[in-house]
Amino acid sequence: MTYCVGLYLEEGLVMLADTRTNAGVDNISTYSKTFIWENPGERTITMMSAGNLAVTQAVVALIEEGLVPEEHPDGDIHTMYNVPTMFKAARLVGQAVRQVYIEDAEAMEAQNTTFSASFLLGGQIRGRGMRLFQVYAAGNFINATEDTPFLQIGEHKYGKPILDRALDYGGTSLTEGTKLALLSMDSTIRSNLTVGFPLDLVIYRKDELKVGVKVRIKEDDPYFKDLSSRWSEALRAAYQAFPSPDWA
Amino acid sequence: MTYCVGLYLEEGLVMLADTRTNAGVDNISTYSKTFIWENPGERTITMMSAGNLAVTQAVVALIEEGLVPEEHPDGDIHTMYNVPTMFKAARLVGQAVRQVYIEDAEAMEAQNTTFSASFLLGGQIRGRGMRLFQVYAAGNFINATEDTPFLQIGEHKYGKPILDRALDYGGTSLTEGTKLALLSMDSTIRSNLTVGFPLDLVIYRKDELKVGVKVRIKEDDPYFKDLSSRWSEALRAAYQAFPSPDWA
């Protein structure tokens, strides 16, 4: 399993992924699920992946090689460094997933392995708006909006309530969003053993056209540990201070 | 879907269930999933159910009729009013599920309907300890302990993080536990449309041998609404007050 979350905020993007992969509980490894394609000042694109590792690695390899767009079979090869828009970047990811599906899905099914893959894709290209997409295994995709300013892939349930309650497109700063993404991840790691450290965090400030922060957070990171314990204390203090119901 | 949560605390039990059932998103009904068998001063047993409604209703009907225990085929019929221990009460539920499985599962499978059922069973019988069980569709069961003082059935993920962080067998009072159960339910209702109001809440204080509080909480309940909005405010205030990371 995996947990990746992307926040789409007025100030920019916060994207956070774990690095654990597992084939059964006794076969656990660390793989980065975070990929950045960047030409500073012109474009920056970050992708995070969840699902079957063989599928997602094949998708990344195809994206790296580049693909001729389905809609322009006589055109040039598209890569993350030359797609003209973030929409086309999402199409490139979608096309790569479909190609892996055509090549591998039947044989995987014969081995009772599910073809699964999903991606978060966020970034900006000069002269265009900042975007955050979620690409499905079918290669189609949705984008985050002001109404729903976050997208999640993988084990999304444990970390969703805090985002539902606290996140706001215009009202949450990049720094506050970073704390919320980390708390959402902390709740997930506590409840699902197949989501684990280290974490890859990418922060992008809108219109800067280069990644502002890319940091790997280890299990013993003092800031993360402090944030987690402060959160537990604050929750406890909060609900204890609430009035009691008449009927209790 | 359904969400039921039971807290096993030093002071007693808190059990909370929603009442929504659905067969598709366009076929939603309200059914109580909470059943109480009580002989005040001698025993009180509360059961909450999740899963296929036809299965759980059949299980309740069999329990009401009573069953001859599998291990004593020549013995008397067991009902919730005469089982000698909570362990035997859980066996009675388990035996009822197995009987429904024998009768219905094959035909259900032929219609591509999954046989699903799970139950929380909490209470106390005079002279015995207070217990809280979770009974599975196979009729076997586990009980809550001081280390893991809560059990959940149905849509359990959204409401788990707060319990993981804040609940403590010895340190959480019945009143505090009630607030936590309600907040856990609130997080679930916000995220899963198939979990909904009204809620059935049962509070049992250990050794009283009768239910202390049984209340139905509607969507416009002023206490619940206040609790929910205070919680959102407190979460926001808490994470905003935390220090920012160096790297953000």
Stretches with pLDDT under 50, minimum 5 residues of chain A: none
Annotated CATH architecture of chain A: 4-Layer Sandwich
Q: Which chains make the largest contact?
A: A-B, 43 and 43 residues
Beta-strand share of residues of chain A: 25-35%
CATH superfamily of chain A: Aminohydrolase, N-terminal nucleophile (Ntn) domain
Oligomer: homodimer
SSE series of chain A: EEEEEEHHEEEEHHEEH
Question: Would you report the number of β strands of chain A?
Answer: 12
- Classify the fold: give the CATH topology of chain A: Glutamine Phosphoribosylpyrophosphate, subunit 1, domain 1
C-alpha-based Rg of chain A, rounded: 19 Å
Largest sheet of chain A: 5 strands, antiparallel
Whole-number total of structural domains of chain A: 1
What is the strand arrangement across the widest sheet of chain A? 10-1-2-11-12
Task: Specify the overall morphology of chain A.
Answer: globular
The helicity of chain A comes to: 25-40%
Give the N-to-C terminal Cα separation of chain A: 40 Å
> How many helical stretches of chain A?
5
Average pLDDT number of chain A: 95
List the main descriptive attributes of the protein structure presented here.
homodimer; 248 residues; alpha+beta; Glutamine Phosphoribosylpyrophosphate, subunit 1, domain 1; 5-stranded antiparallel beta sheet; 5 helices; 12 strands; 27% strand; globular
